[in-house]
Structure formats: structure tokens, C-alpha cells
What does this fold into?
Amino acid sequence: MQLKERFLKLKKEKKCLVLGHNYQKPEIQEVSDYLGDSYDLSVKAKEINSDMILFCGVDFMAETAAILNPNKKVLMPDLKAKCPMAKMLNPEIIKTYRRKFPEASVAVYINTTAVTKAEADVVFTSSNGTKICSALNSQKILVGPDFNLSQFIQKQLPDIQPLLSGDLEKTQ
It folds into this structure.
């Protein structure tokens, strides 16, 4: 039996949903039940009846799927698959910002780790960042970790001042 056939048989036996990120290799996409971006795949996992999720992506994606699907076992085929952006903003940076700006809300991009998300007030995606930030009852919002996305939100919401994780030294 070929490797692909063995994989598909095991996937069926284990009632395993295979999620493939858009950036995966064609051979991974070919055996995935669904393809998409990280958030869409995590939401899709919640809608599908399965016991197990194999998330073919990076660490924060599998963490998000696990948060949204607490009763399902979430696996990653490569535990070394990391996202550099997800590591740019850590909980300690957020805590430092909160001490400096106690009146501010904290909004983080979904491409962050679960421990960073836990320190934020809200989590947003690239498609809903402006909407989420405009709904916050705050004149100052700390937005991270992506500089370009933060700048985009600031252009859309000029009364709100996104502060960036990399700019902490400049605000002190």
C-alpha cells in the first residue's frame, strides 16, 4: 500500500480532520479535508464532527484550533513549524505596556501565541482588525505585533493610537 493510501485509511479510522494551510506543499493540500487561512481553518474545525484534528500549519494555528475546539485532540505534523511573527510580541511586552498605559486596550493579531492572546483584550484577523478596534471603548489601543497592519488600522481610525510592540523603547 502506498504512503498516501495508508495515510487516508488511517485518517478515516481515527476520524481525523486534516486542515491544510494555503502555504502548504501540494502533496499536503491534496490529502487535506480543507484548505484556507489559519482562522478559517480553525473555525471550520469547530463545525466538522471529528475526534481529532491534524493541523498542517505553524504552531499558533494549532493553538488557535485547540482553543476553539477544546474537546478535540489537535496534532501538528511538525512541532518545529514556527511563525516568526507569532514570537514578536510576548506577554511580558504587553504587561510592560499595560503598566505604562493603564487606560489602553490591547488588541493582538491572530498570528500570535496563545499565551500572548491570553494577555490581550481582543484578538483580530487581517480582515476585521479595523472593525474590532473601532468597537473597543478606548481612545488608546495597543496593537501588535505587525507594524504594517497596525499602521493600516491607524490610518482607518485616526482618533485611535495603535502602539507597536517594537516601539516600546520610543514610548518610554
Notes: The chain has two domains: 3-75, 85-171.
